[in-house]
């Protein structure tokens, strides 16, 4: 309120000089830009010829006066001038701009405060309409530092008129009160909790200790709580009689606290246990203060006490509940978080810190957003704040930075918490790493593309087989027999890739898929090409390698696409080409070499990779966690694959 009053007084003092048409011009046209620290230097260095305001030498006298006043003040101030509402501000206002400083200088108000324009814009319009505005507290959710934050301000908007009496701009003196408001809010919450606890527990009574005579007076209820005879208490007992009712483990601490209060004059506030004769224990909170005579000697020590047993028991129960919750959350397979009603995060489970590498000092509040991918940070923060404002459940997917710097896809879902009386308490939410699910979805999409590609490829392969067979067939009957054998071979390969489960499947007796070997798989997939010519153009060489159920389909796709590419562009595209496939097992890995010769000469490696090539590479790397290398030799392609055996036999 003192800042607001100062602003009003300043406005009263400034406005006459601004509106006076007879104000004498300064002897130095640019003297009004002198001083001002950093912002003064920036204003003097700014290229105002590019601004709607024009060069400072042409600025009207009211604007000059305001700028000089602003640069000479430590209080945060800014000026919005002209129809474009161009902003000028001083050193005190710069921190309020956050990361938008110093770019905000010379920009329009709407461009600088675009994120709160729906709230502040109408207020500024009123000032430009000639209405002085005084705001003692206004709340915004700003993104001035790259993330949403609650802010509070007190300010005054004063319309400024030119020599013709028209409003030419607006002058603002302001103070950011965010920290004070948040601190006051926390204090109110603390005071409310204490008030509720004291009301629930009830007052025990009061005392008055006459120190020189060691006479301790108290009301009857207070005396009973300390196991002192009420009649004796009314007549005046000794302090030791009351100390005897305190739990033995607390007596020493209380005696020291009393001595300290007497010696220093500080207020006495202590919580301790009372041990009754029947063995029950009650918690009390006692408050008092020593009073002194005119010579400074201790005279009296009055005070009061309340029974806080229920509050202590409730606090203990809460602590135990929190401990159980933390133990559950810290050991859960997902990351757990909790927020307050204002959206600030007050708890993150241990798994969050282990996953992200953050520490509580950086993650709590809104710091958790720092671990979200920069492209996802702003929109995910907006989704959270909008849901928080509506107090409704939400779910979103974003990329979360792991401690090693990589980003993982995650689902963040939460449900609102409400008290028994319906008050909104914030959220409890969880974050789950779904990177593998995302990869599976991508692979499923890839397979759908493959199905379409496969159908097209089937027509292409069949057409090529027809063309090649027609060139060598003596008559239509021989052509028909040749094509029938080739198409049957392709069907047998498909049966091996997707074998049935036997006749008992319909009766509910699921049998396991028939096993196969690498050689069987290659022969089934490549049989149409092996049978194409009398002299086999494909040579297989290697030991027996079992292929598990899960690997059959993906590996068949790899060889099928490699052969299709060879048939379209490589060694199988003419009658003289050959493909040699050899393999061996080394260090628990399958090393397979695909070597083509006799096909079209390769002048240089291809500049474009087709779908089939991408499918082969992705299958080897993503499905089998292997590697694949290509050598585009002049005489033909050499493809080297290495796949861990553990991924082939599953």
Summed up, what is this model?
It contains 19 helices and 23 strands. By secondary structure, it is α+β, with helices and mostly antiparallel strands.
Pick out its properties.
single chain; alpha+beta; Beta-Lactamase; 6-stranded antiparallel β-sheet; 5-stranded antiparallel β-sheet; 19 helices; flat
| Overall mean confidence score, pLDDT | 83
| Biggest sheet details | 6 strands, antiparallel
Total beta-strand segments: 23
Work out the strand percent.
Answer: 25-35%
Q: What oligomerization state is this entry in?
A: single chain
Characterize the structure shown.
- This protein has 4 domains: 2-176, 2-Layer Sandwich (Beta-Lactamase), CATH 3.30.450; 199-313, Beta-Lactamase; 332-433, 2-Layer Sandwich (Beta-Lactamase); 439-501 and 512-647, Heat Shock Protein 90 (2-Layer Sandwich).
- The relative contact order is 0.04.
- Strands 6, 7, 8, 9, 10 and 11 form a 6-stranded antiparallel β-sheet that branches. A 5-stranded antiparallel β-sheet has the order 2-1-5-4-3, sandwiched between helices. It has a 5-stranded antiparallel β-sheet with strand order 13-12-16-15-14, sandwiched between helices.
- The protein is an alpha+beta fold and 650 residues long.
- 41% of the residues lie in helices and 25% in strands.
């Amino acid at each position: 309120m003192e800042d607001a009053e100062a602003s009003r007084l300043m406005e009263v003092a400034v406005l006459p000089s601004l509106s006076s048409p007879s104000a004498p011009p300064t002897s130095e046209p640019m003297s009004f830009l002198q001083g001002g620290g950093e912002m003064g230097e920036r204003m003097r260095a700014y290229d105002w010829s590019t601004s709607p305001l024009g060069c400072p030498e042409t600025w009207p006298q009211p604007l000059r006066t305001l700028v000089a006043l602003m640069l000479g003040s430590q209080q945060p101030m800014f000026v919005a001038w002209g129809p474009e509402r161009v902003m000028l501000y001083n050193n005190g206002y710069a921190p309020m701009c956050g990361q938008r400083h110093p770019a905000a200088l010379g920009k329009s108000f709407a461009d600088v405060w675009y994120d709160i324009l729906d709230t502040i814009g109408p207020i500024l319009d009123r000032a430009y309409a000639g209405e002085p505005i005084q705001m003692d507290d206004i709340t915004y959710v700003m993104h001035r530092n790259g993330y949403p934050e609650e802010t509070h301000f007190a300010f005054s908007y004063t319309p400024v008129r030119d020599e013709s009496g028209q409003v030419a701009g607006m002058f603002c003196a302001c103070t950011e009160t965010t920290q004070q408001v948040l601190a006051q809010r926390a204090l109110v919450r603390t005071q409310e909790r204490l008030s509720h606890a004291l009301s629930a527990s009830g007052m025990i009574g009061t005392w008055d200790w006459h120190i020189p005579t060691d006479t301790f007076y108290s009301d009857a209820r207070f005396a009973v709580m300390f196991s002192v005879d009420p009649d004796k208490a009314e007549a005046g007992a000794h302090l030791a009689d009351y100390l005897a009712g305190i739990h033995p483990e607390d007596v020493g601490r209380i005696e020291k606290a009393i001595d300290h209060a007497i010696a220093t004059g500080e207020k006495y506030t202590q919580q301790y246990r009372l041990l009754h004769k029947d063995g029950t224990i009650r918690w009390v909170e006692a408050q008092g203060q020593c009073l002194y005579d005119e010579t400074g000697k201790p005279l009296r020590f009055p005070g009061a006490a309340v029974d806080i047993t229920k509050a202590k028991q409730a606090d203990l129960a809460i602590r135990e509940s929190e401990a159980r919750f933390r133990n559950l959350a810290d050991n859960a397979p997902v990351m757990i978080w909790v927020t307050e009603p204002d959206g600030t995060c007050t708890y993150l489970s241990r798994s969050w810190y282990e996953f992200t590498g953050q520490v509580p000092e950086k993650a709590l509040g809104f710091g958790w957003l720092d671990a979200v991918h920069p492209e996802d940070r702003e929109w995910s923060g907006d989704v959270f704040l909008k849901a928080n404002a509506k107090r409704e459940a939400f779910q979103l997917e974003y990329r979360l930075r792991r401690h090693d710097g990589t980003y993982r896809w995650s689902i963040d879902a939460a449900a609102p918490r409400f008290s028994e009386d319906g008050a909104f308490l914030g959220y409890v939410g969880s974050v789950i790493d779904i990177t593998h699910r995302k990869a599976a979805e991508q692979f499923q999409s890839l397979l759908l593309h493959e199905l379409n590609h496969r159908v097209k490829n089937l027509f292409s392969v069949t057409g090529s087989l027809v063309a090649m067979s027609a060139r060598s067939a003596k008559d239509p009957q021989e052509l028909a027999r040749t094509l029938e054998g080739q198409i049957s071979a392709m069907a047998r390969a498909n049966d091996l890739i997707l074998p049935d489960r036997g006749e008992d499947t319909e009766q509910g007796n699921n049998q396991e898929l028939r096993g196969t070997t690498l050689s069987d798989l290659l022969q089934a997939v490549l049989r149409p090409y092996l049978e194409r010519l009398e002299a086999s153009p494909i040579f297989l060489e290697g030991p027996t390698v079992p292929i598990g159920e899960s690997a059959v389909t993906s590996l068949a796709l790899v060889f099928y696409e490699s052969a299709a590419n060879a048939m379209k562009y490589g060694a199988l595209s003419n009658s003289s080409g050959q493909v040699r496939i050899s393999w061996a097992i080394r260090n628990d890995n399958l090393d397979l070499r695909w070597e083509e010769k006799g096909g079209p000469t390769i002048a240089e490696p291809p500049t474009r990779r087709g779908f089939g090539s991408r499918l082969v590479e992705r299958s080897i790397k993503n499905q089998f966690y292997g590697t694949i290398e290509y050598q585009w030799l002049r005489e033909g392609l050499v493809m080297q694959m290495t796949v861990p055996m553990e991924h082939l036999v599953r």
